Structure formats: C-alpha cells, structure tokens
Amino acid sequence: MTNSLKKKFFNDINFTILIGLLIAAIVLSAIFLPGGMFSAANIKSMAFQIPEFGFLALAMMLSNLIGGIDLSIISAANTIAIFTAFVLNGTWLPALPEEARIPAGLVVAILTALIFGVFNGLLISKTSAPSLIASLGTMILFQGIGMALTGGVSIGNIAFEFTDFGKAEWAGIPLIFWLFLGAAILLALLLEKTAFGRKFYLYGENKVAARFSGINNEKVCIATFVMTALLAGIAGLIVLSRVNSAKVGYGSSYLLQTIIVCVIGGISPNGGKGRVRGVFIAIVLMQLMSSAFTMLSLSPYTKKLIWGVVLILVLSLNHWIRNLNDSIKKEK
Amino acid sequence: MKFTIDRYQKILIFIIAAYCAFVGFVNPAFFSITTVFDIIRTSSTSLIFAIGLLVVMISGGIDVSFMAIALFGSYTTINIMIAYGIDNLAFAVGLSIIFGAVLGLINASLINWLKLPPFIITLGTQNLFHGIMTTFVSDKSFGAGVLPPCLNQFGRATLFQIQTGSGTIGLSASILPVVFVALATWGLINFTMIGRGIVAVGNDEESARRIGFSPARIRYYVYVWSGILAGLTGIVYVAQINALYPNKLIGGELPIVAAVVIGGAKITGGDGKVFGAILGVLLIYLLNSTLILIGLSSSWNDLFIGSVLVASIATSSYQERIRNRKNLIFTD
C-alpha cells in the first residue's frame, strides 16, 4: 500500500468498514436471496422507500452531530403532514381554488416546520435544557397538536397532483430519491465546505470552547434545529404523498432505526464527529436489511432482536476500533 | 433529616389541587373515595417505575429499558411458574427481581464500558431484552385461567374496605409495594453513603471521583436498583391485569420520564425527590384520565402533558442557567 492510501485507510477506518459492510450485504443477499433482492422491481421499490426514512435519518444525524438528540422529528413530520393534508383536502382555507391548494399546502408545511424548528432551537439554546429532555417535551407537544386536531383519525382525500409526486420518476429513478440525493449532497457541502459547517462541528465537539472562540452558539443551535425540522417536514410530505394520508403515530419504529443508522454511519453520539457520506451508506445498508427481513418474512419480534443486537454490536465495535486507533497512535 | 416540601413541590401540589377542584366543579362525581382508591390502584405501577427512574436520573443518567426489564422479568418468571406448576407469590417476586437485577447489571456494564449516552445504550438494550424474551422464551399470551392463582389473589386483595352508595370498595394491596419502594428509595438517597454518591456523581462526576466515589460503581448500584424495581413492578402489573402478554408495557417509557421530569428531578442530574416524582406521576395520571370528566376527548391528553412538560423543562433549566451564569459556570 502506498503511504497516502494507507493514511486514508486508517484516517477514516469507519468509512472503510462501512464500504466493506455494504459489499458484504450486497454479496450475501445476492447469494441467499437471488432474484428477490436485485430484481429491477425490488431495486425500484427500495428507491421509493429510502427517502422517507432517509430524510428522518439526516435530521437525526444533524442533532447527533451537535452532541444532542432530537426525539421530536417523527411527531414533527406527522404533524406537519397533517397540517398540509388539511390544506390539500380543502378542510382549511376552503375558499382557495383547487389549483392553489398545493402551493398553499407547501407554504403551510414550510411555515409549520420553521415554527417547530425555531421552537425546539429556542427552548434548547435559550434555557440550556439538554436536547434529549427538551425534545421529549416537544415530541409529546407536537404529537398532541396533531392528536387534538385529528382525534387520531387519518387525514386523506388530498389533491391527486400531490400524490402523483410520490410516484413520479425521472430517468427511471423515483423523483423523491433524486430529492433525497440532492439534499444529502447539499448537506454534505454545507457541513464540510462552509464556515457554518466549521462552527457546527466545533459547537458539537465542545460547546464551551465554541462559545469562547466567538461562535454564536445560540444561532448555531437554532439553525441546526430549524434544519432538522425542515428535513423532518420533507419526510412528512413524502409520506403524505406516498401513503395518501397523514396520521399521528405513523413510523414510530423509525426512531430507533434512525439512531442505529447514525451510529453505523460513524456519527459519534457525543457529537462533533462523523460525515454525511457515512450516514448515506448506512441508510442504503439499512434499506437492504429491511428488504431482506421482509423477504424472509421475519416476525416483528425477531426484527426487534436484530436491531437491538446491531445497535449494541456497532457501538461496541466502534469503541474497540477507537481504542485500537489510540494505541496505534501511541506506539508511533 | 426531616421530610420537607420544597417550593417546586408546593407549586405542583397547588396545580394538582386546583385541577382537581376544577374537575370536581365541572363533574361532582369526581369527588369520592372511589376515585382516590382507583387512582392509587391504577397508578401504582407507574409510581414504582418512576421511583426507579428517579434514582437513575439523580445519578445523571437515563433509562428507557425499564419497561422491557419489567416485561422480561415477569413474563419469564410466570412462564417458569406455569411450566412447573409453582404457585407462590414470593417466588414470583423474587425471581422477577433477580432477572431485573441481572438486566440492570447488563445496562450498567455497557454504559461503563462504552462511555456513551445512556439513552442510546438503554434504547438498544430495550429492544435487545424484548427481542430475546420473545424469540427465546415465548411470544404467546396467557389468559386468566392459566396464570398462577396467587397473582390474581394479590391483584384483587384489599387492605380494608369501605361501604359506599354503590357497593363496597377497598384500598388495593398494590399500594404496599409502592409505599415500601418509596420509603426504601428515600432512605437510600438520603441516609446512605451510596445515596450520597449517587447525588455527587449526578452533580459532577469529576468532583465525585476526586472525593473518593467510584462513578462506575455508583452506576452499577443505580441501574441494578432500577432493574430490581422494574422486576417487582412487572409482577404487580400482571397481578393487576390478570393476564400475561408478550407486548404490553413496552412503549410506555417516555410518559414515565416525563412524569419524573415534571416531578422536579434535575434534568442534568444531582437533584430529585421521591415525593416530587410521586406528584409528577399523579399530575400526568390526572391529565390522562380526567379530561373526559371535563368534557374533552382523550385526544387532548398529549397536548396538555406536552405543554406542562415543556413549561416545566423551560422554567427549571432557565433558572439553573441563570444561577450558573452568575457563578461564571458555562455548560454550553
């Protein structure tokens, strides 16, 4: 191995392992599920399923990168979708002409996401509340808003043009997958190539040091939670468009999965470490596993066991690799 | 040390009393001894869970696996009892507590070893424990006829009975474990060296280490205690509902966390009162079960609980921040 390659290998060992895992998963599923996993139909259906979960995972990634966690993403996504559905089916603003409903719905979705994000951000940055507990509170609150409005019933009957969006394709690939890809690339550029990204990583690594380096911590925190809520909102709209209705409690099992994806993707739960590309690969990996589970028709209990084992195993593996890395550095 | 009621608890008592007065005003049927006995019986399991979680939160950690531990302990124990025809309440409680202690030990070991946020680790073990139970023990439900009769006897037992207009009602024996657990935990926190250590580690781990406490050992005590209480609660729960399901309890962790936070446990650790946690559970329980009495549907539960929780987090964190800033302590 040349020196630079060696350096690359050890500098981002987590990413190397991820690529290895992805290849292993592809090879294994090609051997054990031939035809099933890599049929054109299944690949397309995976490409349709990745975005709604992927946007939530990106949202969770942002909150993990600043050393926190945002438990409210899923209830925010559902409540934003409910608000939008109310506009799209004409329950709200009934005077609006049919063709203006979709733009109005999008405006409502963005406004709601902004309000939710700013609320989270203000609560966490202005009162120094730990994001875990603060977002637990807003999770129940956002869910409560949706529940009080709908009574738990799913809100459907929305404009056809909107549901078409979730099914649309461009160049043989679902439009929503392009959207997800674009968002991931934009996020990666924002975090790795801009001044904001620098501040963001420093804030995640050490908040007190960031404050005394002249970074406006509160601004960074609010911006992060606004982005988180916007990503969650997009996930909510994708669900609304694909499922044709919005409902409180949809996708509650995603919370654990988003955390697992972030951990596998190399995001340190203590903050400040990890990159978008790792999470992107982890999302694809997760979808491969989910599809394989569905094909093997595993019971929900078995899935639970596997997710639990995977999370603990990956955390232990990361710990072990970190220790190994440290000891290599010491020897040098 | 005297039992004192601090200012925060006075506010909670005032809110609870005012709310009860309001409910009683709208619906006079609320004011009866039946209501009191009913509240005591149905909130007893939540109370024990909350007290166990309180100890963890005082130490600066969090546990979201206690429901899985309760389910694992009670379900496995009762399966064994059914298989071998054992009918002994002490055996049930004892074995379930042992399961709880072992699972708590696993939690503490993982947290000490991996040095990652306890939320993520216990979220993993929650799925792990539940997955192990349903995959390797059993995933069948058992009705009242199959369960050991001693459980139902305990579930229906009353300490004393009172004649009312609509028949006799009694004070459920479920209050006994609650009172015992509350007193034991109160004593543990206030009168033992372990309790001092739990508070010290929660306040500042480094300072606690320097005065001679071992944070790792304290975490073992804390999570094992939480596991023991969860094991006990599992049996109380099964005795009350008189049936055994492999999927109950799980998913009810976050309301308990909310109750303990509302009860005044410091979110960052180091402070928290058993009496406060009891008040927190009562407030959540009242909001959950009495909205119907004042003419609102139960869909409004989350909105009310979320608002109370966010308000309580915001005020307590903000006060803490003002105090810290005055002393030039920066946490973020």
Question: What can you tell me about this protein's structure?
Answer:
Chain A contains 14 helices and two strands, in the order αααααααββααααααα. Chain A is mainly alpha-helical. Chain A has one domain (40-297): ABC transporter involved in vitamin B12 uptake, BtuC (Orthogonal Bundle), CATH 1.10.3470. In chain A, helix 8 packs across helix 9 (195-205) and helix 12 runs parallel beside helix 14 (300-331). Chain A starts with a helix and ends with a helix. Chain B is mainly alpha-helical. Chain B has a single domain (7-326), classed as ABC transporter involved in vitamin B12 uptake, BtuC (Orthogonal Bundle), CATH 1.10.3470. Chain B has helices at 7-26, 33-58, 66-84, 89-114, 118-137, 149-156, 175-191, 193-203, 205-210, 215-241, 253-262, 274-290, 301-326, and strands at 158-164, 167-172. Chain B has a two-stranded antiparallel sheet with strand order 1-2. In chain B, helix 4 crosses helix 5 and helix 6 (149-156) crosses helix 10 (215-241). The radius of gyration of chain B is 20 Å and the shape is globular. The two termini of chain B are 35 Å apart. Chains A and B meet through helix 5, helix 6, helix 10, helix 12 and helix 14 of A and helix 4, helix 5, helix 11 and helix 13 of B.
Describe, in short, the structure shown:
The complex is a heterodimer of chains A (332) and B (332). Chain A is mostly helical and 332 residues long. Chain A is 76% helix and 1% strand.
Structural class of chain B: mainly alpha
Strand order of the largest sheet of chain A: 1-2
- Average predicted confidence as pLDDT of chain A: 89
Largest sheet of chain A: 2 strands, antiparallel
Shape of chain B: globular
Describe the sheet with the most strands of chain B.
2 strands, antiparallel
The rounded Rg of chain A comes to 21 Å
Largest interface: A-B, 51 and 52 residues
Number of strands of chain A: 2
Following the backbone from N to C, one meets helices and strands of chain A in this order, namely HHHHHHHEEHHHHHHH
Low-confidence stretches of chain B are none
Can you give the helix content of chain A as a percent range?
over 70%
The tally of domains of chain B stands at 1
- What is the helix content of chain B? over 70%
Can you tell me the overall shape of chain A?
A: globular
Separation of the first and last Cα atoms of chain B = 35 Å
